[in-house]
Design brief:
Helices cover 64% and strands 9% of the residues. It folds into 2 domains: 200 residues, Alpha-lytic protease prodomain-like; 67 residues, Alpha-Beta Plaits, CATH 3.30.70. 41% of the residues are buried. The protein starts with 19 loop residues before the first helix and ends with a strand. A hairpin with a 5-residue loop joins strand 1 and strand 2.
């Protein structure tokens, strides 16, 4: 039984990448969001707008989630040299994104309950002030989204993606709040206000499900790239004699993988040969190969 840890390809087990730019811009968005959140919640309560109040609460969940994203970046950076984290600290960011999704789901449930109550117990709304604050909230969300958008690919950085989608969804709920307030003021459609609260709750639940699904898969080491797994098997078995009898593949960072491969062979090929067959797959940062005769 032989093993290799591919020393040519990895000098360290720390595969985390510092993201100081993302961290700094996330901090800016956190401060902006907190200020706007307080303004919307207070104004929504004073002026009696459920759409505006729910938008403020929704922004509050974003403030919490953005803070978690920020803390995750900081911890991942601070603990990057801690040898207790065998494969680096990237999953701290994933755990942060997962936690922010859970918080968002709970707040979505709260908005849903309050919106249903307002259908049966409507309150008077000061439309002019409520519309003004909702527009301010929308502007803030658009600015925040533009700031976060320049950090890079949200698809590769789930922590960044969680922050980015938070403000995008919040911008949509701000638009819904404005529509509800305008409809109620000029068309006397009072039901629009709690209705938009329900729509906001739906958007929150939908996003929550999506992010929990993506982050949970990584936290549980679910094999997410089936194409890469198939390519590994094809490369190892390219001689027509070797057979992959066991394969484990999991993410180390947003675009790097670790793999444990068990190969049944007839002794004609050594570890270096199998290693060379995988050299073109740069996303494989850590490889362990076991050969069984």
């Amino acid at each position: 039984m032989n093993f290799t840890n591919s020393p040519d390809w990895q000098q360290s087990h720390n595969f985390s990448i510092e993201k100081k730019s993302a961290e700094r811009k996330t901090l800016i968005v956190v401060v902006i969001t907190l200020i706007t959140m307080l303004a919307e919640i207070i104004a929504g309560w004073i002026f009696g707008s459920m759409a505006l109040f729910s938008d403020g609460l929704h922004m509050g969940t974003h403030a919490s989630a953005l803070s978690i994203s920020l803390i995750s970046y900081i911890l991942a950076r601070k603990l990057s040299k801690d040898t207790r984290y065998t494969f680096g600290t990237w999953k701290i960011e994933i755990l942060g994104a997962y936690t922010s999704a859970l918080i968002l789901g709970l707040m979505g449930l709260f908005v849903l309950i309050i919106s249903i109550q307002r259908f049966f117990n409507p309150v008077n709304i000061n439309y002019n002030y409520a519309i003004l604050v909702a527009i301010i909230g929308l502007v803030v969300n658009v600015i925040s989204a533009l700031i976060l958008q320049h950090n890079g690919s949200q698809e590769k950085d789930l922590n960044l993606k969680s922050a980015y989608i938070h403000v995008i969804v919040d911008a949509l709920t701000s638009i819904l709040a404005i529509i509800a307030l305008l409809g109620a003021k000029y068309l006397n459609l009072q039901f629009l206000d709690p209705l938009m609260g329900l729509v906001s709750a739906f958007l929150i639940f939908r996003w929550t499900y999506s992010l929990i699904r993506d982050t949970a898969s990584i936290l549980l080491d679910k094999q997410t790239d089936l194409t890469l797994a198939d390519n590994i098997i094809t490369a190892i078995e390219s001689d027509g004699e070797s057979k992959v009898i066991d394969l484990h593949l999991w993410k180390l960072t947003s675009d790097k993988y670790a793999s444990i491969i068990c190969v049944k062979a007839n002794g004609k090929h050594d570890l270096e040969e199998y290693k060379s067959r995988l050299k073109d797959y740069k996303e494989l940062a850590h490889i362990n190969i076991e050969i069984q005769g």
